Amino acid sequence: MNRNLIIFSVLFLTIVSCGKGNETKPIVQNIKELVFASGNLEWENSYDLVAQTDGILSDINFEVGNKVSQGTVLAKINNASNQVNVETAKEQLAISSENLTSNSPALLQLQQNITFAEAKYKQDKTQAERYKRLYETQSVAKSEFENYQLTAENSLSSLNALKKQYNLLQQQAKQNYITTKGQLKNSEITENYNQLVVPQNGTVIEKLKDNGDYVRKGDVIAKIGDASEVEAVLNVDESSIAKIKIGQTVYIKLNTEESITHNAKIVEILAAFDEKTQSFICKAKFDEHIEKGFYGTQLEANIFIQEKKNALLIPRSLMDYGNEVNVKGKDEPVVIKPGIISSEYVEVLGGITKDDILLPLTHK
After folding, report:
1. What is 147-211 written as a DSSP string?
2. CA angle (23 as vertex; 314, 325 as ends), nearest 5
3. Which residues does 293 contact at the CB level (< 8 Å), separation at least 6?
4. Which of 10, 38, 191, 328 is deepest in the core (most CB within 10 A)?
5. Could you give the maximum distance between any two Cα atoms of the chain, in Å?
6. Which pTM value belongs to this model?
7. Domain ranges in the chain?
8. Number of H helices, E strands in the chain
9. pLDDT of 47-100, one tens digit each?
10. Which backbone phi and psi does 283 adopt, to 5 degrees?
């Protein structure tokens, strides 16, 4: 038996008695099948304002019920290490920036070495060319000419090596500048976490921390939502979730005003089973504006599944295990085919007719 199925008739349902003791006849009447769900009110686009760094909370300037605007700083978190990291990153970036210029000590030293190497290569090259002419006139030995030629080649290799080293040092300086600049940006972003900024307009639903509280990254400081958009969050039993579809009508009574029934429509069915509530979560949007839609208000809902015309109904108390009922004039119990079953009534799809007379289960 599914305890979440409830029958509402168009008229008040009255099981007809035959006037002879506890004998009862079935009744034919229109019925509605509904799935019961508990739940609560939530505000659309509600979210938690969380701490994004560790520290001591200060300068809180909000209370429950306050309307807050996007970009507003609601509180601060004192975290000195974030500020130190920013200052350190700024100093490192200044050094990296200086290393990119020609006035960098390392680049200046290399440039001086290159200037010296260029002068030496020029001198060695001149000597090699001179000895080449002397060798061609057989004025010097071949070995002397080759020695000066080798010296010039070595000077050129040293010069080229210094130039490559200079270019490599420039490239490393650029890479270090890019890295340091990124570190500064990250440090500034982290420092901004010291401020609790409202990401979007809303109303403060709940305040969970106060000035002086030590908070850790991820702690919820406040809950904020859009009070103009109220929705019902319903907990549906897993045995009934297959019956729920988008667009179905929902009849909702709020615990704050139990005499009023609000109409709503199913707008979302969450795919995952919720372990906390041990149920599936569905969301419904109200057909009309809810004046007193206080966040978290508990509610009871009935989700309309289908309506049946001229259904044959009997009291639930007359059906035994195995779907058996006692019928007057028959020695053995009769097995019926039930349709909708609730704690009070059973829809009969087969096994008996509206003319049969039913007896209590204790009658033999």
Report:
1. HHHHHHHHHHHHHHHHHHHHHHHHHHHHHHHHHHHHHHHHHHHHHHTTEEE-SS-EEEEEE---T
2. 50
3. 41, 43, 227, 230
4. 191
5. 151
6. 0.56
7. 5-44+229-359, 47-74+195-225, 81-192
8. 3, 22
9. 999 998 888 888 898 898 899 999 999 988 886 666 667 678 777 777 777 777
10. -120, 140
Which residues, 6 or more positions from 191, have their beta carbon under 8 angstroms from its beta carbon? 82, 83, 85, 86
- For residues 44 and 155, the model is more confident at 155
Phi-psi region of 347 (alpha: psi -120 to 50; beta: other; left: phi over 0): beta
- 3-state class (DSSP) for residue 73: strand
Class of domain 47-74+195-225: mainly beta
Q: φ and ψ at 157, to 5 degrees? A: -60, -40
Q: Token digits for 5? A: 């199925």
The domains spanning 5-44+229-359 and 47-74+195-225 adopt the same CATH topology: no
**What is residue 10's predicted lDDT score, i.e. its pLDDT?**
35
Show the CA angle centred on residue 341, arms to residues 339 and 342, nearest 5°.
160
Under DSSP, the state recorded for 109 is: H
In the prediction, which pLDDT does 190 show?
A: 67
Residue type, 271: A
Q: 47-57 burial, b if ≥16 CB within 10 A, otherwise e?
A: bebebbbbbeb
Q: Which of 10, 32, 36 is nearest to 303 (CA)?
A: 36
- Tell me the C-alpha distance between 316 and 307, whole Å: 19
How far apart are alpha carbons 128 and 148 in whole angstroms?
A: 5
Higher per-residue confidence, 345 vs 241:
241
Torsion of CA 209, 210, 211, 213, to 10 degrees: -50
Q: What is the CATH number of domain 5-44+229-359?
A: 2.40.30.170
Q: Which residues contact 54 (CB under 8 A, 6 or more apart)?
A: 77, 79, 214, 215, 216, 217
Tell me the C-alpha distance between 177 and 193, whole Å: 25
Q: Would the pLDDT of 165 be above 50?
A: yes
What separation in angstroms does the CA of 309 have from each of 179, 306, 312?
A: 75, 10, 9
For the record, the structure tokens of 48 come out as 């938690």
